[in-house]
């Protein structure tokens, strides 16, 4: 079990078939922290309003997070756009999980990181929300195809690979949108007197410096299968978890999946 000062995850999208709950559950079984930040879109309220989908693995993820909170981990929940209904509970706690609008995390070396989901600074979400809903429908269709594609890969002993992420990175407009979002978030962190920002929303894990500010995105558990962590020595890293490390989980996608080594993609300032 690895123990960190802090772990950030976002964009889990529980309640959708695209959610890679088994990989996240395996990650939670092997990693713990003093503080655990849930940076939005943990449960996909948009999708659940259309049709109910809640397999056992999704329930297990929720129970695992609640168990960590009961055992002393400080769990802080910052809702996003897909779980925006939770924003009515700012300032409240549920099962030892604190619900907040945003929060400041102080790293070991004293840097102040503003933690927010990021959708409130997305022009599409603010000025053309209907377009976001249309995009979400198309995105869900790609994830549907991707799910069965990866079932075949897993039976062949290969790691998870995201078709939607691949397509996103090939489209010039999508790449431009991501770059604009990153710069906006860095600018907003500066306005708040912070040294950097930790966010989610765009499903692209990243640690880099933008105009002297630290920009961190913890990725997602639909495409990237990533989390952001701060080690006990104060180092920030992105952890990529594309294999099930422990014993096979009881799910169709991971049945008969052999144990595999942890893949870590590290990025430091």
TrEMBL record:
The processes (GO biological process) annotated in the record are: lipid A biosynthetic process
Q: Which UniProt keywords apply?
A: Cell inner membrane, Cell membrane, Manganese, Membrane, Metal-binding
Report if keyword Transmembrane is assigned. no
Q: Which InterPro entries match?
A: Calcineurin-like_PHP (IPR004843), LpxH-like (IPR043461), Metallo-depent_PP-like (IPR029052)
Keyword ATP-binding in the entry? The reply is: no
GO terms, molecular function: metal ion binding; UDP-2,3-diacylglucosamine hydrolase activity
Per UniProt, residues of the Calcineurin-like phosphoesterase domain are: 6-204
GO (cellular component) term, any one: membrane
Which protein, by its recorded name, is this?
A: UDP-2,3-diacylglucosamine pyrophosphatase LpxH
Species per Swiss-Prot/TrEMBL record: Polynucleobacter sphagniphilus
């Amino acid at each position: 079990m690895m123990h960190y000062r802090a772990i950030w995850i976002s964009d889990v999208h529980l309640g959708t078939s695209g959610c890679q709950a088994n990989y996240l559950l395996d990650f939670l079984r092997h990693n713990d922290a003093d503080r655990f930040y849930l940076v939005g879109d943990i449960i996909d309220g948009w999708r659940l309003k259309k049709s109910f989908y809640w397999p056992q693995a999704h329930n297990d993820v929720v129970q695992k997070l609640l168990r960590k909170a009961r055992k002393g981990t400080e769990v802080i929940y910052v809702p996003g756009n897909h779980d925006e209904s939770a924003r009515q509970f700012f300032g409240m706690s549920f099962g030892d999980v604190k619900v907040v609008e945003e929060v400041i995390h102080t790293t070991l070396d004293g840097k102040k990181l503003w933690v927010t989901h990021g959708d409130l600074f997305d022009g599409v979400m603010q000025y053309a929300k209907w377009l976001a809903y249309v995009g979400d429908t198309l995105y869900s269709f790609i994830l549907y195809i991707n799910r069965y594609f990866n079932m075949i890969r897993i039976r062949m002993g290969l790691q998870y690979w995201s078709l939607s992420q691949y397509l996103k990175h090939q489209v010039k407009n999508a790449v431009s949108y991501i770059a604009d979002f990153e710069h906006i978030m860095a600018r907003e962190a500066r306005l708040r007197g912070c040294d950097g920002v930790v966010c989610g929303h765009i499903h692209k894990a990243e640690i880099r410096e933008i105009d002297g500010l630290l920009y961190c995105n913890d990725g997602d558990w639909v495409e990237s299968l990533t989390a952001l962590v701060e080690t006990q020595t104060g180092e920030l890293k992105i952890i990529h978890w594309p294999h099930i490390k422990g014993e096979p989980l009881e799910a169709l996608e991971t049945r008969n999946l052999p144990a595999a080594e942890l893949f870590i993609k590290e990025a430091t300032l």
